[in-house]
Amino acid sequence: MKLVIQRLIAILLLVIPGLSAAYGFLLMKDALFDYFAKMGDVDTITPDFSWGMFIAGAVLFLIGIGFIGGWIFFRDRKHNYLSSRFRPKTPRPSRPSSSDNPDRT
User: Fold this and answer.
1) How far apart are CA 16 and CA 11, in angstroms?
2) Cα–Cα 20 to 30 A to 74, which of 4, 51, 63, 87?
3) Which domain holds residue 74?
4) HEC string of 51-62?
5) What pLDDT does residue 103 have?
6) Is the pLDDT of residue 105 over 60?
7) Is residue 32 part of a domain?
8) Is 14 within 8 Å of 64 (Cβ atoms)?
9) Interatomic CA distance for residues 27 and 33, integer angstroms
């Protein structure tokens, strides 16, 4: 039962940011659609763009996508699926000095 609850929590940790990203995308889409729809209206002289709705949508979208992307990145790093440039750097071993090696002259 404990494993089922852990998996349910893990799924919810991915679904909630995914839903917020989808809702943020819808807010941005609606703001743009309303602006272009007002541009086509003959009675409106200067259409207003709803910046508040667009910025709130962008913030929700970026937070949701960033969380899911970070989740996948760190999971892949844990399973060693990443290319070498994303792996943690390991320090190079120090070179022995010439005084340590008696064979060299």
Assistant:
1) 9
2) 4
3) 14-85
4) HHHHHHHHHHHH
5) 60
6) no
7) yes
8) no
9) 10
